[in-house]
Specification:
Length: 488
């Protein structure tokens, strides 16, 4: 390889694509790495020999990526612009690289590629050194882009009214996917990708109207959005983290960020993401904090073992960065993964909270109803169906340092660490997906009804049977939690 440094080792591609998987695991071709002194001719020859379409220019000493050059770039600059093929590739490369940390998710990469209209991203290690590259081919089809023209419509929108119209089209698109019997995981992936793009546009359009402080900051999302598990009916759960050197500076910066954050909350509400009834939104001063203040808040929750406090804090533990300086959220996540396992009383309180779950199955495995006044003959598929899986996955992730926020990826990440057999994990994942599919189908067919309450008698016999089996899996997962944390 011309003037190149040693190629990075590459682990084999996993058997199936997951948008929640680390990019480090997904890129499956060893990258073509060249030194800045290599000639354009040498790089062109290497691209041809490797049948590659891009090379990364990396400094041999620091391993910092300097630029990227594609086959198309070389041909244009030599064949069309008449450049000298013996000039150093540094003169022909594209600088200002778009990079992502190597442990970012495929979902994050797909959103960045769509927004920036690029076919390649450079992946970096924590110190900024080069790790690898990821391409659209590595990601298969970009989640949310396939089968619709919604992405260009989102990117072209220049006001909230236009975005609100696209938001309606996103919901219609999801309904169409349900009608085509697309699997629940794929639908939720696409909803999440499109909703992320919409929220990013809202934030960018709103930010242009405010004189924001010139400090690192990041918009965070919590709850189902943080877990990339949004359904067709969802409200807002978000926050803002920023860098501040002192409590006094944090208070001053917060006062400047809050008007902007409230404007974003209002714009998202206009797009169909209703305001959070619990006020867990960036426009709330309690959710617009410096990095040190967020760490302090999490420390308080970890030290608090009262049931109500534990229940109210769980939504925050599903956070992920959406817009801005991801490094702030990464630092907060890394700190949390070290801190949480040392707080056994808090973890036990989380377990006690979820073990209070009332199964919708009675002792002979018939359906049991909770006598809701408005929906007497129904069960809540969010509270009594999906929640046991979400809660257990969160507990195991916090206890065992699993960085993922998505429920299925948390279970996968924890399975080996807790000795869960593969067949048991597969059954849990299938059960969770079935409950999610029923929720989506109910929301699509009954947009004006309670989004999570269904009457089991209205399900066809097979769905009713599989729902019972899925709820049995939730019960088994709780029994495992009890063995791991309660039984002596």
């Amino acid at each position: 390889m011309p003037g190149s440094s040693t190629e990075a080792d590459r682990s084999p591609r996993p058997p199936s694509f997951s948008p929640y998987a680390s990019l480090r695991r997904l890129a499956h071709h060893a990258p073509l790495v060249v030194a800045p002194s290599a000639s354009v001719r040498e790089v062109l020859r290497a691209l041809d020999e490797r049948r590659a379409d891009a090379a990364v220019v990396v400094d041999a000493g620091t391993r910092l990526p300097l630029g990227i050059v594609t086959l198309r770039d070389v041909l244009r600059r030599i064949a069309i612009d008449g450049g000298d093929p013996d000039t150093p590739v540094a003169a022909a490369m594209t600088g200002g690289l778009i990079t992502l940390p190597a442990d970012s998710t495929a979902h994050q990469a797909s959103v960045v590629m769509v927004r920036r209209s690029v076919g390649h991203l450079v992946l970096t290690e924590a110190d900024g050194s080069f790790c690898n590259t990821i391409s659209q081919a590595d990601l298969y089809a970009l989640p949310g882009a396939a089968g619709s023209d919604l992405v260009p419509a989102l990117l072209a929108a220049r006001d909230v009214a236009a975005l609100a119209n696209v938001a309606k089209e996103i919901r219609a698109f999801a309904n169409a996917l349900l009608a085509e019997r697309v699997g629940p995981e794929a639908i939720v992936q696409r909803i999440s990708a499109l909703n992320d793009l919409l929220a990013l546009q809202v934030i960018e359009l709103t930010a242009g109207r405010f004189d924001l402080p010139y400090v690192p900051w990041c918009w965070l999302v919590f709850g189902s959005e943080g877990r990339l598990e949004q359904t067709l009916a969802t409200d807002q759960d978000n926050g803002l983290v920023f860098a501040a050197a002192s409590p006094e500076e944090a208070a001053s910066l917060r006062a400047r960020f809050l008007p902007f954050a409230r404007a974003v909350n209002e714009a998202l509400d206009a797009c169909g993401f209703t305001l959070c009834k619990g006020n867990i939104m960036a426009g709330n001063p309690a959710c617009c904090l410096s990095l040190a203040e967020w760490k302090s808040a999490f420390s308080g929750w970890l030290a608090e073992a009262q049931p109500e406090a534990v229940l109210n804090s769980t939504i925050f533990f599903d956070f992920r960065p959406l817009y801005g300086q991801d490094a702030l959220a990464v630092e907060l996540r890394d700190w949390l993964l070290v801190s949480a396992p040392t707080h056994a009383i808090f973890l036990r309180a989380l377990v006690d909270s979820t073990l209070g779950w009332d199964s919708p199955l009675n002792w002979w495995n018939g359906f049991r109803y909770d006598n809701n006044r408005d929906h007497a003959h129904s069960i809540d598929l969010k509270k009594h169906g999906a929640r046991p899986f979400v809660d257990a996955a969160r507990i195991y992730a916090l206890a065992h340092g699993v960085p993922d926020t998505h429920t299925v990826e948390r279970l996968r990440g924890a399975a080996a660490r807790i000795g869960m057999p593969g067949h048991e994990l597969a059954a849990l994942i299938d059960a969770y997906h079935h409950i999610q599919r029923l929720r989506l189908e109910h929301q699509a067919a009954n947009p004006a009804a309670d989004p999570n309450r269904i009457d089991p008698d209205r399900l066809h016999a097979l769905d009713r049977h599989i729902l019972k089996e899925s709820l049995k899996q939730a019960r088994k997962l709780q029994q495992r939690l009890e063995r791991d944390y309660v039984a002596v």
